[in-house]
Structure formats: structure tokens, C-alpha cells
Specification:
Jelly Rolls, five-stranded antiparallel sheet, 8 strands, 23% helix, 36% strand, elongated, binds zinc ion
Length: 132
């Protein structure tokens, strides 16, 4: 088990954590679980092209605008961040073979911050497969 530490720098941000996850594999094969401990962050696999990342964040923001009368804002002022995180999901599973992540050419593991800047933690563990 490894924990990746991420310090985000703005309220909303995408961080490519592919290399951090790769370093956390420790030569094991099986299924890598990458899981965020937070309720206002998400994890997804997609292409890390800057225009696309901005498009994704802009579209999520237009779906879930800030301060739109959410009940949770009465206690925490970050309901939009929780809703955005719940749309994206809080984990991904990636096959690992020969000690390498099985990612397609353009696939990257992306950490999405919706309520930064904050210190964040992402859990990585490879659940080893039985050889058949
Ligand atoms: Zn909250």
C-alpha cells in the first residue's frame, strides 16, 4: 500500500498522477486500485491534453454552478465541489501486467481537485492476481 501526497494550488485543478501511481506498483501484477480519501476530489482516466482538461472542468462547472442554492452551502459553502466529485467518482482500477500499468496510448490517471488548494492523499494498492 502506498499513499500519494498531492498539494493542489487552486480551487479547481487537474493533476496527472500517472507517474506517481507507476512508482507505487512495487513490481506487482494484478489490479491497481487508485482511490482518493476526499469527498471533494475525483479520479478518472482520460487524455491529459490541456485543452481537453479545461473543456472537462468547464463543462463540469457549467453542469454544477457554484452557490446555486444548495443546502450543504449553509454549513460548508462547497456543495458544488461535493457534487462534482460525485459525478466523476473517487477511484479507478487499472490492470497491471509485468509490473506495468495497462494504459492505452493516450490514457493518463488524473486527479481532479474541486475545493482546493489543499493537501490531498490518494491510496494506491495492487491486488495481486492468481496465475492461471
Ligand atoms: Zn462540504
Amino acid at each position: 500500500m502506498s499513499v500519494i501526497h498531492i498539494e493542489t494550488k487552486s480551487r479547481e485543478e487537474v493533476v496527472d498522477i500517472t507517474e506517481d501511481v507507476r512508482k507505487a506498483l512495487n513490481g506487482k501484477n494484478g489490479l491497481a486500485v487508485v482511490y482518493t480519501f476526499h469527498t471533494t476530489t475525483g479520479i478518472m482516466i482520460n487524455e491529459a491534453e490541456n485543452g481537453l482538461l479545461q473543456d472537462i472542468m468547464d463543462r463540469i462547472s457549467s453542469l454544477v454552478p457554484r452557490n446555486a442554492g444548495y443546502r450543504h452551502d449553509r454549513i460548508d459553502s462547497n456543495a458544488d465541489a461535493h457534487i462534482k466529485a460525485s459525478l466523476v467518482g473517487n477511484s479507478v482500477i487499472i490492470p497491471v501486467e509485468n509490473g506495468e500499468l495497462l494504459l492505452g496510448t493516450w490514457q493518463r490517471i488524473l486527479f481532479l481537485e474541486f475545493d482546493g488548494p489543499r493537501r490531498r492523499r490518494v491510496y494506491v494498492r495492487v491486488y495481486e492476481a492468481e496465475e492461471s
